[in-house]
Amino acid sequence: MSTEKIADEIKFAYWVPNVSGGLVTSDIEQRTSWDYEYNVRLAQTAENNGFEYALSQVRYEASYGAEFQHESTSFSLALLLATQRLKLIAAIHPGLWHPAVLAKFGATADILSNGRFAINVVSGWFKDEFTHLGEPWLEHDERYRRSAEFLQVIRKIWTEDNVDFRGDFYRIHDFTLKPKPLNTPERPNPELFQGGNSTAARNNGGRFSDWYFSNGKDFDGVTEQLDDLRAVAQAHEREVRFGLNGFIIARDTEAEARDTLREIVEKANRPAVEGFRSAVQQAGNSTGNKTGMWADSSFEDLVQYNDGFRTQLIGTPEQVAERIVAYKRLGVDLILGGFLHFQEEIEYFGERVLPLVRELEAAQPSTVG
């Protein structure tokens, strides 16, 4: 099954460093900070350098290099109020949020930001975050069943009155939210992102979300996920957009970019990476067909904890731009970028890489067969 279309223009997001430790679990220098002042400057830089979205991470306690964490929804709202155009995607966990409570927060954040709030529903991979808070840790597919209900409930609350919902995880009785978030022809409700790799994640994405986020993948991995996702979406008469994680190392020469990758891996914090590996690979392998996130990730892949090196956005500006557009041809709508030195590298990307992407896009046909 071929992809249906090429995105009009591929969009770009960046990982908000609202947790300490940077985006690679390595002792290499990372010129970044998790504090608010740094993040305000970074968000303003990003929106002025072609980035349309930013994703705030969700961590509730120290884990694998992330000793300190700012909460994702409140931090996203703070950044929305410090920017003009950037859309903030707050990662959240069903099971730790009730969908109606989050819907209320989200409506307020959306109105205050003139329609720039979004959420990324994370079904959960870190068992300790639930058990340490006294919450049940569900089996993998049950976590995704809960997320499916969460997505349905929050969309209904944001768009309907007198909501009733009878599920296995959530019961809503004649509930009306006022005020609701902004409703426009382009976006009837705050955008709903949902990530994962497993069959359960793809089913949720195809049936209930607006966007599907994938961990880092090569061309074959992206094609396989897109085919499954769009088959589910078509069966339910829906369209879902696709976002791909990628760690971006754009340098003046390919040798410099490859040397940077080599140094990151050589200086990996091995105990932290191995700890993360043992925590997440059991989650991926717990799915029936072992297609969950991180199920087949190598040690090197996990140094960037969302498999960002696999996307191979590493090289000169020309090489990175060409690979981005190749992903676009497959049907990728958004690149979620991570960086070693956020502020300066987002500026470099906006000045050196993004114009080449737009040139290559303009030279390509708008559809594929």
TrEMBL record:
The keyword Flavoprotein applies. Keywords: Flavoprotein, FMN, Monooxygenase, Oxidoreductase. Residues 181-201 are annotated as: Disordered. It comes from the Bacteria. GO terms for molecular function: alkanesulfonate monooxygenase activity. The keyword 4Fe-4S does not apply. Residues 11-333 form the Luciferase-like domain. GO terms for biological process: alkanesulfonate catabolic process. PANTHER family: ALKANESULFONATE MONOOXYGENASE, ALKANESULFONATE MONOOXYGENASE-RELATED. This is Dimethyl sulfone monooxygenase SfnG. The gene is sfnG.
